[in-house]
Amino acid sequence: MGNLPGRKRGRALSRLATAAIAAALLGTTAGTAVADGTTPPATPTTQKAAGAGVLTQAAPRTAAAQPTVAAPVFPLTTVDRSGTVYMYKSNGKGAFGDRSNPLITGWQVMAGATRVDHNQDGYVDGLYSQSKSGTLYFNKGVDEQTVTIGGGWDIYDRVFSPGNLGGAGESDLLARDKSGVLWIYLAHPDGTLSDRYRVGPGWDIYTDIAGRGDLNGDGKADMVAKDKSGVLWFYKGTGDYKDPFESRVKVGPGWDIYDTLLSIGDMDSDGRSDMLARDKSGVLWFYKGNGNQNDPFENRVRIGGGWDQYVSMF
């Protein structure tokens, strides 16, 4: 890359990390990210939505609903304490095959990532990555240009996608700001995003929010949230971006034994989304989805121990 000034060099390193991450996580030829702890400065937030600036012309978002795959099939990605990234593929029976070889290093420049299925065929086709300084990127793969969505995303402590929330087909993003307000960004087919829409305040009562696809069998993306007392709540998706969730339904207490909840979609090939939970001793558990919003999961099944070696899983 040659000798670059500090700010430009930081941006180049972050883009290189993003491209390598996208290549690995989307199943293309993996490179190794170069990381020295330098990250690009965040773009100042404007009066518009944080992260609303885009570098490409957004494709029109169609009003007509498109066919939706209720339960996508995504792999699990893990990041260890050294910043090395690995992948686990589901075996279709509620567990995983062997861990991959190290995919990339240099995760230190990134704060997180979330996969999406914009064309609704059930498989990953895009990746949103966030640098620690607050820049959000979108990438379709190693041969595609990395799109800088915008800066200012460090106002959020959680950015993720449960799937299609707005009814137009693409997988939309949810972002919780540090005051506890939840916002939704509608995605376009090219990965760019709309201005944000306010979902509502009070989401800081939750220590975990998870979901990937349909949990109750109505074809709409749902999610669950664990509050600080360990009670799990179910949020049914409406398909309306102006009011994307119905009133919460109590699933039950006792979920404070887990330090991580997440979903990667359908893990046991039954067409329903499932959930993973890691307990505080490092054991990972599989919760099979059953399509019931009042009690959406079957009894847990132990996958195995040692998962506390990872600082991030998605």
UniProtKB/TrEMBL annotation:
Name of the featured protein: VCBS repeat-containing protein
Q: Which domain of life is it from?
A: Bacteria
Kindly state which keywords UniProt assigns to this record, in alphabetical order.
Signal
- One Pfam match: FG-GAP_3
**Segment forming the signal sequence:** 1-35
Question: Sorted alphabetically, which SUPFAM superfamilies does this protein's record hold?
Answer: Integrin alpha N-terminal domain
InterPro entries associated with the record: FG-GAP (IPR013517), Integrin_alpha_N (IPR028994)
